[in-house]
Amino acid sequence: MISGGALTAVSTWMGGKLTWLYQLSKAGKLCVPAMNVNDSVTKQKFDNLYCCRESILDGLKRTTDVMFGGKQVVVCGYGEVGKGCCAALKALGAIVYITEIDPICALQACMDGFRVVKLNEVIRQVDVVITCTGNKNVVTREHLDRMKNSCIVCNMGHSNTEIDVTSLRTPELTWERVRSQVDHVIWPDGKRVVLLAEGRLLNLSCSTVPTFVLSITATTQALALIELYNAPEGRYKQDVYLLPKKMDEYVASLHLPSFDAHLTELTDDQAKYLGLNKNGPFKPNYYR
Amino acid sequence: MISGGALTAVSTWMGGKLTWLYQLSKAGKLCVPAMNVNDSVTKQKFDNLYCCRESILDGLKRTTDVMFGGKQVVVCGYGEVGKGCCAALKALGAIVYITEIDPICALQACMDGFRVVKLNEVIRQVDVVITCTGNKNVVTREHLDRMKNSCIVCNMGHSNTEIDVTSLRTPELTWERVRSQVDHVIWPDGKRVVLLAEGRLLNLSCSTVPTFVLSITATTQALALIELYNAPEGRYKQDVYLLPKKMDEYVASLHLPSFDAHLTELTDDQAKYLGLNKNGPFKPNYYR
Amino acid sequence: MISGGALTAVSTWMGGKLTWLYQLSKAGKLCVPAMNVNDSVTKQKFDNLYCCRESILDGLKRTTDVMFGGKQVVVCGYGEVGKGCCAALKALGAIVYITEIDPICALQACMDGFRVVKLNEVIRQVDVVITCTGNKNVVTREHLDRMKNSCIVCNMGHSNTEIDVTSLRTPELTWERVRSQVDHVIWPDGKRVVLLAEGRLLNLSCSTVPTFVLSITATTQALALIELYNAPEGRYKQDVYLLPKKMDEYVASLHLPSFDAHLTELTDDQAKYLGLNKNGPFKPNYYR
Amino acid sequence: MISGGALTAVSTWMGGKLTWLYQLSKAGKLCVPAMNVNDSVTKQKFDNLYCCRESILDGLKRTTDVMFGGKQVVVCGYGEVGKGCCAALKALGAIVYITEIDPICALQACMDGFRVVKLNEVIRQVDVVITCTGNKNVVTREHLDRMKNSCIVCNMGHSNTEIDVTSLRTPELTWERVRSQVDHVIWPDGKRVVLLAEGRLLNLSCSTVPTFVLSITATTQALALIELYNAPEGRYKQDVYLLPKKMDEYVASLHLPSFDAHLTELTDDQAKYLGLNKNGPFKPNYYR
């Protein structure tokens, strides 16, 4: 049993904290075991992919009433959050472009029907710019200068660093608050860029998080804490761990009844054939 | 450097072999290092998800000319192959049901808009049954007995064990070969079940594999062999390894020009912020 | 030239008025020419199909914060409004059932991947009920009695007659206003039904109408009035007319630049081959 | 009752014949009544939209084994056939551009998430060119000269006039038949264009027509002939008529049981409210 201070990390809300946890661990400065709950499958898929698929639409509508059909949108980053945003926008008739640094995600974007471009190639023509990278200064002042009038800019990634908002706090630009969470930044020639939530997270600032997603994430965190607390001495050292697959599966199974979903059980013979326990875990730990 | 006998495994074609490799390793009987190429991201996504999304349609059309619109289909298994099949069939207007043993995959199916059922709940009403489980005896004689007339049954998973075809080789049933790879199995009351490829893999037997997918998979395998061959003594022991992330990314990057996709490069500042090398790898090894 | 009183009708906001106009005309009591702008292609597609595809999501989110993924939804009516609602909900992972009276629309629903059912077949299991019929008493007290706890009920069709809200104003039911436009109607056993906008139009009461759609509809109406006003004596009698195709096309062409869309022009040779004027109209009047 | 010679027209197979019928009628040279079955809703939607949504994929796969994911495709014409082709290709991960002459169809393409371009804007970059216009010389020798190596060209529209195939029968180009229905046309610099079915209809030449669609179309034609035959003297003059709505609905209702679809019936009260007969027709004649 571990006493005191067990940590769990959830990146949508703790962002850079996760990297920081791994850095502490590498430096040998982590003084308690920690669980990286953020990278469990249920957290990744439900909090990021499925939740953002809905909150990108909700956040944009509540702030700008924009119509999605026919709009040209560039999404920076095609991780889980980016994939969710793109799926929703494409389904509602937007034309979506992707920027990516990772060739695997870029190739997935191609297969999903999106053109992969550098931001500069499309910045003059798009109606909406959305960042989902976890990075900083993805949208720079130079990009903002080149956007067309009425372009909407927002951040679905992490923290408030993805759009270089500081670069917009200069004397030649006028800020006009047109609604809660919505600023018009006005260039000397009259061009307006519509900045949402001052570059902070759109999904947390301008849309709601469904109770279902909160339930998934909270359950995952609670189970991680219980596991750390109950684990026999020595199971966890002063390091960062992924949530054991079996707990990840348990979180999911607790939420199936909401959808009246009926799981199939393995027969003894099938379990033996697959080399699995009938109660799981059903997949290797690296499976997503 | 390793001499001789380096193994690489690709599951679409080697199926159970992969489990067997891990079993050998566990038993201490693996006499060379092996790379589990099958579970690299490029293999998983491109060979399984994206390729099967197309070959399920192709395989069904070439063998049966079935119209997808309005058809009720049950897909057993919602892993990468199942996800690909379901996405394609849903897009073309089929109504798709899922069976799953794994609660995480089941919950994903719910989020993607599919009802998760036990096979018995829908077996009397569906027009098509597709297995993608990697398991055996998923479709049993009892299920086959309950299918409606003209129901199409096929396997996209692995090997030829998913449908219990042996149980159909009994005197009271008549087999009629109506076309290459297509058998009508006829019950005494005249009911016909349309069995494709005698339960072997539909995507390999009845559709083609696009050269793009072959290129991805072959590149991954070749790189794995080169890595095993070139690795300094001691890097790989007599165990099963995942392909290093960086190679996985390299495979992807080699295929981006076919789509005229343009990667974004990290600035020095951004790379430092993310704690990444500008040339990758960009994601932790467990990322999919 | 016609003096005074020219009428134009737009059904999303005038609903039954349109039927009434045709009835007046049949009865010989229409005293001025009228244009049925509602049934022009641009009005039908943009105000109904494309606008409702977005406002159903917006209206539901703003009032209930419901997550769409995995939800079971029944949509009553598969006309343009129903088609729009269903496309959006399906894309976001809802499982959608349709009720229809018209076999052509029902068959389209099948082809689009929806099960066509009677309301009673699914009323106990669905999470959301949406009416888009133009009819009255589509959702009756009997249906409301059988809904499960927390079921959301709303109207996207016309007027406030589609849900029999009057039947809920009885002593044994308690109404609780939980938010603007959101009532919980509470049964004696504690079951709550979530009624939106007291059965009035969700898209007008609880979501916004994009300026693009307003522009389309207003342009159509303005052109109809100009045409009626400018038409030579005798072109229009005391009857109900559809907007001439050419004007419908003109409305569309005025809105193409917002999307940077580039029309192709017919060559003389092609125009001759098709028997068309190079400037349109390009389709017969009944084309949608 | 009409004796002899009643005509029905079905455009997928009779294409230009339909225009010709209207021209005959205009010129007063039509000597029998004719029904334009092609423009009935069931024919338009099922034979064109829903059938082509499947046959474009089938035709391309059987002839070229092309992978759709990530491919850039231009579809000329966004009528019912074009809409079907685009929906299918988009769903399978292709990036689709549209060319259109009609602003209404062009605006629909925008709303559905496609960029509307002139053919010249994208001809150098696309992997596949598909014509669905009903027009002639839509793809000219000049376009063919500018296509990139391996570009696939095919026709889903009508007749064999949409692609100017004649212009490719010149001495400097070499034709190589690589498979039934597939020609490589080779430019002096080695560039190959992949021409399918020599520019004839891909869906008829290289894919199959599902029995369901044949049944819809044949039923429509048969009913039209029966109606012309049985109609009381004087109902039909020597002109071209659309199929009465009620018959269109009847065709649809005959096909609902294949999908286990259950129609809802109007109550007397509802029928009265809507001013409809409980047995239909349920929509005005111009409704699609």
Automatic annotation (TrEMBL), chains A, B, C, D:
Keywords per UniProt? NAD, One-carbon metabolism
* SUPFAM superfamilies xref list: Formate/glycerate dehydrogenase catalytic domain-like, NAD(P)-binding Rossmann-fold domains
- Superkingdom, taxonomy of origin: Eukaryota
One Pfam family matching this protein: AdoHcyase
The keyword NAD belongs to this UniProt entry's keyword annotation: yes
Ranges for the S-adenosyl-L-homocysteine hydrolase NAD binding domain?
Answer: 48-209
| A single cellular component GO annotation | cytosol
Q: Where is the signal peptide?
A: none
Q: Name one GO biological process term.
A: S-adenosylmethionine cycle
Q: Which cofactor does it need?
A: NAD(+)
InterPro entries documented for this protein = Adenosylhomocyst_ase-like_sf, Adenosylhomocysteinase-like, Ado_hCys_hydrolase_NAD-bd, NAD(P)-bd_dom_sf, S-Ado-L-homoCys_hydrolase_CS
Annotated family? Belongs to the adenosylhomocysteinase family.
What protein is this chain from?
A: S-adenosylhomocysteine hydrolase-like protein 1 isoform X2
| Biological source species | Cricetulus griseus (Chinese hamster)
Gene that this polypeptide is encoded by: Ahcyl1
